[in-house]
Design goal:
2 copies of one chain form a homodimer. Chain A is α+β, with helices and mostly antiparallel strands. Chain A has 10 helices and 12 strands. In chain A, strand 11 and strand 12 form a beta hairpin. Chain A binds a DNA duplex through helix 8.
Chain lengths: 288, 288
DNA sequence: CGAGAGGTTGAATAAAGTCAACAAACGTGG
DNA sequence: CCACGTTTGTTGACTTTATTCAACCTCTCG
């Protein structure tokens, strides 16, 4: 794990990332975007027409495994994912990673750095990525001219906050099965939103990373995926996931406290002895 | 629980909250604050000198149990806690509460409403509270005159985001004991910051609410507090908590084997050595 | 004073983690 | 191209952790 870190060369965003870069805009494999395009990418409705082809934001490419920013590094720029997949992580006092998010197209990175002027998390490319740089100083200066920009920023940050709240709710309240199920559904919807198939896709992250994200061990993630496969909710082959029953996945939840438990007990009592499926999954679907 | 809800009258912030309210500012039991005072309260360094005694923000009082805003309610104002204690919660499809935070003096409420223009969480007063209203429209309009205001807002939102990231890390990675320990430490530090004792304080929330916040059951919270009390890390008497060993709480990872378990082990081994100390505390602190 | 909410504790149970063995895929250099 | 070591994923047996259910206690507060 450390070897990959040391083999990596820290990317310096202000340096030209590719040798053959031209100044100005380029249609294919584009290197610059204007404000309108950035807002579209973020799915944030931009109020006034901002015909700002003069105001361009540079793109930078990162290769799989490269770090976009590290914890404690001085904050100066925000990033928007134009293509590719990443993870953001916290690192605890003993070097253990805690995955916070898996940013992909249209997500913003680096917002956590604004407050203390240092990034509080680390972002790593899980695939080759194309990111748009938003130098924060430039952004705030720009806010003085394009007043609608501040609303864009508030919107993005608020959205991120709501996402994290949902995550807290999930970690605090849901069972392992429900977490994995919702993770898959959220991924599927995300892929759909990006124009890919929501029924068949490839995970870009390891079981370990999924487990860290969901507050589970990699074994629990693996077992849960196998269980979903066995009861026909999904198909699994390594990192290829096929969604077969999205509705069931959406409503799957923790065995609720009182009522379903009573049902379960009543059922097992009335059924008395013979249980045909000793290894059958505890009823995965919501009863309540 | 429902009875308190029904007995409550929805507060309308734009309406005068108390009958004897005077227009303008009032020194004792103040009803208005200027921008500088708001920034000080938020612990956000405000750049330029903003002598804006003309720009005043109204205070509103809420009584214990009252809701500040509810889920789905149209968003129009942010709140800053001037005094008192609150909780914010999500409510799942079956009415179960998930506590997200316990805001207190200097915290901002309502940021989650910006994105969708509707609050996505509910805020409830756990004690009588004094809140400062920041009408969002007014705030953004103000941003056009006082340009440093946007940095204040970015700072507050970023800080909140970092806090939630830390919460995700905690829920994803720590044991029940470690969560409770860190919760107590965080509370103590918060009280210290507000000028109260960090060694002896009163919890403003129930075990159930703490459990919801930490992703645990109320019984686990209760047991953990009792265990900490037994090994001398804290003193507990209902909601009164005394912190006796803050350092141990900060670095705690897991608890020593419980007494019943120790007994069980001793019995099974029965090495003829009579154990005089029932609860030795071997590697209580993090070894690795 | 009594009802009800909040809190503590114990015993049994279920959920998830740990440890371990193995298999499949990947990547690198001969 | 293949052999290899490494990383990733699966599965089983067992252990630990936290939950569930239940009983009981202690405060408030009408």
């Amino acid at each position: 794990m450390l070897s990959t870190q040391t083999s990596e060369i820290r990317s310096v965003p202000s340096t030209t990332p590719s040798p053959s870069m031209e100044a100005g805009r380029q249609r294919q494999g584009r290197l610059w975007s204007n404000l309108k395009e950035v807002c579209d990418l973020l799915h944030i409705p931009v109020a006034g027409s901002v015909n700002t082809d003069e105001l361009l934001f540079q793109h930078v490419q990162f290769k799989t495994g490269q770090r976009i920013h590290t914890i404690g590094q001085p904050f100066d720029t925000l990033y928007i994912v134009n293509s590719g997949f990443l993870k953001t992580v916290l690192i605890d006092e003993f070097g253990n990673e805690q995955v916070l998010s898996f940013p992909m197209k249209g997500d913003m990175l680096g917002v956590d750095g604004i407050h203390t002027k240092h990034y509080s998390s680390e972002a790593v490319a899980l695939s080759d990525c194309d990111l748009i740089l938003l130098p924060f100083k430039k952004l705030t200066a720009l806010g003085r001219i394009h007043l609608e920009l501040e609303n864009v920023m508030y919107g993005v940050m608020s959205r991120e906050l709501v996402r994290e709240q949902a995550m807290i709710g999930m970690l605090g309240a849901l069972s392992a099965e429900a977490r994995v199920a919702r993770f898959l559904v959220a991924l599927a919807e995300r892929f759909a939103q990006m124009g890919y198939s929501s029924k068949l896709f490839n995970l870009r992250m390891t079981r370990h990373e999924i487990g860290s994200y969901l507050g589970l061990t990699l074994e629990t993630v693996s077992r849960t995926l196998s269980a979903f496969n066995e009861i026909g909710l999904i198909s699994v082959d390594q990192r290829t996931i096929g969604i077969k029953d999205a509705d069931a996945l959406k409503t799957l939840r923790r065995l609720p406290p009182s009522r379903s438990r009573a049902k379960q007990l009543a059922a097992s009592k009335s059924k008395s002895s013979s249980e045909p499926h000793p290894a059958a999954l505890p009823q995965l679907l919501a009863a309540i």
